[in-house]
Specification:
Radius of gyration of chain B: 13 Å
Largest sheet of chain B: 6 strands, mixed
Oligomer: heterodimer
Helix content of chain A: under 10%
Strand content of chain A: over 45%
Number of helices of chain A: 0
Shape of chain A: globular
Largest interface: A-B, 22 and 26 residues
């Protein structure tokens, strides 16, 4: 079935970087943008950016410009989100989500299960 | 402070009809499609409504969306206990060049 499976939970120290993976299956990976959304504990959803797996083009939210890098490995049907210079404010669950353009330019129809990232010394 | 404004909570009894509102501006809701997501406790969000008022396959017709100007609403009729969840509205914002979400509305079924 169509699914996105993310890597496991991470614990990082302040100032470090974290890289989360998102493996797609059940559909043509290169045909749909992959978006990243995070959710701090008890808080709402925050969009981080997208990557076009077909050509590697990216678009980042201004909030994360310079700190986030989205990449992909088409041979592995996997997208990656790397966030650097971590602070305690980056403690959150990070989700990847597929954009299904037929439903709208910002319709996220398939979501990964989420990856919990904890930043703590 | 979220760009899209939602009431933090809503409630209803089984069988009742409840409405969740989302308010924005001309740079987001007023000029772009509105989406609704449902997030059950401990789960990833699920697309509930796309393009303002369309339901993905598998979403019951008890859920309906509407948009007027810079505001939107999600209506849930025949409320059921399994509808207890957080509901988020989302839209593209032309000024921010970003997808923006509402702060979420926690729906309680009494």
């Amino acid at each position: 079935q169509v699914q996105l499976v993310q890597s496991g939970a991470e614990v990082k120290e302040p100032g470090a970087s974290v890289k989360v993976s998102c493996k797609a299956s059940g559909y043509t990976f290169s045909a749909h943008y992959v978006n990243w959304v995070r959710q701090a504990p008890g808080q709402g959803l925050e969009w981080m950016g997208w990557i076009n797996p077909n050509n590697g083009a990216t678009n980042y939210a201004q909030t994360f410009q310079g700190r986030v890098t989205l990449t992909r490995d088409t041979s592995m049907s996997t997208a990656y989100m790397e966030l650097s210079s971590l602070t305690s404010d980056d403690t959150a669950v990070y989700f990847c989500a597929r954009r299904w353009r037929q439903l709208g330019p910002d319709a996220f129809d398939i979501w990964g299960q989420g990856t919990e990232v904890t930043v703590s010394s | 402070q979220s760009v899209l404004t939602q009431a933090p909570s809503a409630s209803g009894t089984p069988g009742q009809r409840v409405t969740i509102s989302c308010s924005g501006s001309s740079s987001n809701i007023g000029n772009n499609y509105l989406y609704w997501y449902q997030q059950l406790p401990g789960s990833a969000p699920k697309l509930l409504i796309y393009r303002n008022n369309q339901r993905p396959s598998g979403v019951p017709d008890r859920f309906s969306g509407s948009k007027s100007g810079t505001s939107a609403s999600l209506a849930i009729s025949g409320l059921r206990s399994e509808d207890e969840a957080d509901y988020y509205c989302a839209a593209w914002d032309d000024s921010l060049s970003a997808v923006v979400f509402g702060g979420g509305t926690e729906l309680t079924v009494l």
